Automatic annotation (TrEMBL):
One of its GO terms (cellular component) is nucleus. This is Glycoside hydrolase family 92 protein. Residues 294-782 form the Glycosyl hydrolase family domain. Keywords: Hydrolase, Signal. Residues 30-288 form the Glycosyl hydrolase family 92 N-terminal domain. Residues 1-20 form the signal peptide.
Amino acid sequence: MFRPLLSSGLFWLCFGTASSQPRNFDVFDYIDPFIGTTAGGHVFPGATLPFGMAKAVADVNNPDEKQGGFASDNSDITGFSHMHDSGTGGSPSLGNFPFFPQTGCPEDNINNCYWTKTDRASRRINGTAEAHPGYFAVSLNTSIHTEVTVTNHTALYRLTFPSNVSTTIARNQTALPYSPLILFDLTDLPDSRTIGSIQVDPQSGRISGTGTFSPSFGIGSYDLHFCADFKGTSIRDTGVWRNNRAGSEPKNLSTRPDGVNNPPLPAGAWTQFTAPKNNQILTRVGVSFVSVAQACHNAEREIPDFDFQKVRSAAEDAWRKKFEVVKVDATGVSDEFHTVFWSGMYRSMISPQDYTGENPLWNSTEPYYDSYYCIWDSYRSIHPLITLLDPHSQTLMVRSLIDIYRHEGKLPDCRMSLCKGFTQGGSNADTVLADSYLKNITAGVDWRIGYEAVVSDAEVEPENWSVEGRGGLKSWKNLGYIPTDDYDPSGGGPFTRSISRTVEYAYNDFCIALMAKGLGNMADAEKYLKRSENWRNMYKADQTSLATNTTGHIGETVDTGYIGFLQPRYLNGTFGFQDPTLCSPLYNFTSCYLNPDGHETYEGSSWMYTFYVPQDMDSLITTLGGPENFTNRLSYLHTSGLLYIGDEQAFLPVFQFHYAGRPALSAEFSHFYIPSQFNTSLNGIAGNDDSGAMGSFTTLAMMGLWPVPGQNVYLITPPYFPSVSLTSPQTGKTATIRNVNFDPSYGAIYIQSVTLDGEMYTRNWITHDFWLEGGVLELTLGRNESEWGTGMGDLPPSSSTGM
Ligand SMILES: *[C@@H]1O[C@H](CO)[C@@H](O)[C@H](O)[C@H]1NC(C)=O
Ligand SMILES: *[C@@H]1O[C@H](CO)[C@@H](O)[C@H](O)[C@H]1NC(C)=O
Ligand SMILES: *[C@@H]1O[C@H](CO)[C@@H](O)[C@H](O)[C@H]1NC(C)=O
Ligand SMILES: *[C@@H]1O[C@H](CO)[C@@H](O)[C@H](O)[C@H]1NC(C)=O
Ligand SMILES: *[C@@H]1O[C@H](CO)[C@@H](O)[C@H](O)[C@H]1NC(C)=O
Ligand SMILES: *[C@@H]1O[C@H](CO)[C@@H](O)[C@H](O)[C@H]1NC(C)=O
Ligand SMILES: *[C@@H]1O[C@H](CO)[C@@H](O)[C@H](O)[C@H]1NC(C)=O
Ligand SMILES: *[C@@H]1O[C@H](CO)[C@@H](O)[C@H](O)[C@H]1NC(C)=O
Ligand SMILES: *[C@@H]1O[C@H](CO)[C@@H](O)[C@H](O)[C@H]1NC(C)=O
Ligand SMILES: *[C@@H]1O[C@H](CO)[C@@H](O)[C@H](O)[C@H]1NC(C)=O
Ligand SMILES: *[C@@H]1O[C@H](CO)[C@@H](O)[C@H](O)[C@H]1NC(C)=O
Ligand SMILES: *[C@@H]1O[C@H](CO)[C@@H](O)[C@H](O)[C@H]1NC(C)=O
């Protein structure tokens, strides 16, 4: 495994900080990692580097909230572990090899210490949890205060034992001798370990081990390795433990499934210490997917001297560098909005995770990123935001996606822990690749293979399209839609979601057409452009929609008044029926998940999916009865309770008013959701964060230019600040969006006129060149909707009007 030196390194220059930020501004004052750590947000609030592999935090035992390890609730803490995913909706992810420290064992008998997760689970002390980029800390009722910081593959914990230890008491009030014990557990958050082994070195106290675990939203299994060293005092004794018994011999053990205990019995190893003079013990844990030796090597190389403050400063510097490219003038803006903005940006750079040099599946000199969890969520806003803030990382991600195609035969739609994750709709890596292709993500990218990869999605059906590619390709090519009763002997997957798969496949094909055009392959461009019109084939023009009211006149069934929706369609060409409101918050909201009895739309209603024609909004608007009817319908989607902003398909409809010549309404609905659904409270996001998707939504919305993913198009709305600037890490040039007549109470959110570098600008959208070439986009705001951006020539491009 090699960490390649990037031949393109020369292009990625570092540029100095511009000076518009006030002198005393510290971005960390506006980053709260605890946002979204309760009520299903599943945010990981622990210590990590940007896109780092080591992600350390305290793990709680609340099964509904421990997806990201920690939760801001009253649940107990079972240990500290070194790898996590953030914001995910599957079962809890990673959290392997937790350790748990104890001040001593009652009566100095190791069997009186607490071993299993159940036995050792301890309350946190309220108010002690602290989190900043690169740092996390909490005190438990064991009176031990644990702090952690990280490098790329190593976590460094600083444990502070109670100084009044002679009076520390065990749970049953007997005196506790001061002889700290640290156990490691061969487990993970979802208790998925099958095979495992662990050993402890009696001289150094080093504990290392290996386990085989299951991914949290995918197939297969993965092996992970760790290596823990200690510093601060001398070793007193070492040993292993199984179930709730421990001994100092032997010094190693291994486990396999026994056929009866599921999950397998808890097991691990321990090291006991003499009392540390300064009451502190440092615990350094390296991780690796390759081997124990590499886990130890990672730890020794990255943190040779156990210098906590030095590691923490390096982590902080790494984060500050990422934020430095953006400057806001926040005059008059509340701390609340300011914090939502930077915290969302922070969460957008937690994943995907850089596992370069850690991929045991194939040998390659290309980068390897993982935790694309999932692209169905991240293509809409996370990757477009990373492309702006950190195009170098986006380039490495694109290269890694293409390398996954090279070695596994398909691009992933979801991937975690070296395993294939479940596909939710289309093959949306196609959209990520097109987005990057159009935005000058070029350094070291083999776009010939990249194009081959997206064409493979469009043309070659895999045997198991539950985890890659697309199903129903024969029907897709012959009939132009995914029949609800499809006959598909070529491959298997969940035969549900025929409507949402159809509209996503159509958009994926459109993105392929854009790439084909860019690569000069006009025949393909034409072919895929044609296929991008397939959304029409599931549109049933005379379909009406009744809705049951859940807000005003509760229970009352009303005719929504809108006609024409996407509907199930059979092989024989006739339409079936799915209530257009099914799986909206108004009707059986949770009936469209990824399970065998799901319906024809995925995690949302036909009402919502009927708007998913990003390639040709002009035709959609005509189909739905013209701009006025379209605008009314889209407003109704937002105000009737039919749309849940906590799922990513809801993002684009906030801004689609632009296509009907009503950019003012996009601004209005952006403010409708922010801050009502997004704020700085612990449950301050809607839905799961999904690796930062909700964070990227708020940050991009507040920056004022909403990216249409897969296109070189940003829809213009006013930033939530007097001004926002981005210095392109690619070109070193600065693009500034400035509001004139900025109103911090957000009454004046309507654009009256715009200039770009002093010239009148009437189009309601702009291309990526603005970010690359720099310049000043000046928006003059007022309290009422204006004529700006409403003319036919001002609208964003649609395929039917020639893109
Ligand atoms: C700690 O905070 C939780 C809420 O997170 C609360 O339920 C609990 O009562 C508090 N405990 C103490 C000891 O104050
Ligand atoms: C306290 O608990 C330990 C086990 O944790 C037990 O060995 C000891 O006998 C108990 N002491 C008393 C006084 O109950
Ligand atoms: C710490 O918390 C655990 C779990 O709630 C509880 O069982 C234990 O008694 C507490 N210990 C002390 C010293 O309060
Ligand atoms: C972490 O890894 C990245 C990518 O290899 C590298 O650029 C960065 O310098 C590393 N960070 C630290 C703090 O070592
Ligand atoms: C030990 O000191 C800590 C911090 O001063 C205090 O919170 C705790 O109650 C003390 N514990 C005992 C058993 O006295
Ligand atoms: C423990 O380590 C020894 C020496 O490396 C090895 O022979 C033995 O198989 C190991 N035992 C277990 C249970 O893994
Ligand atoms: C990678 O290369 C090494 C050294 O040549 C070899 O030992 C290893 O088996 C290769 N791994 C894979 C997955 O091909
Ligand atoms: C596109 O990126 C390359 C480096 O990858 C750079 O040399 C070039 O200037 C960029 N083009 C623009 C328009 O910024
Ligand atoms: C429900 O009733 C309220 C108040 O009468 C109304 O504003 C809302 O649009 C209605 N919702 C639907 C789905 O008709
Ligand atoms: C078409 O197929 C559907 C589903 O099998 C069936 O219910 C319907 O009757 C068929 N229609 C015609 C006209 O054959
Ligand atoms: C809606 O949910 C109810 C209750 O779970 C169930 O009985 C019904 O079949 C569902 N309807 C549909 C169309 O899924
Ligand atoms: C547009 O809306 C009006 C008023 O609701 C309705 O009468 C008309 O039929 C709609 N037009 C189309 C083409 O749907």
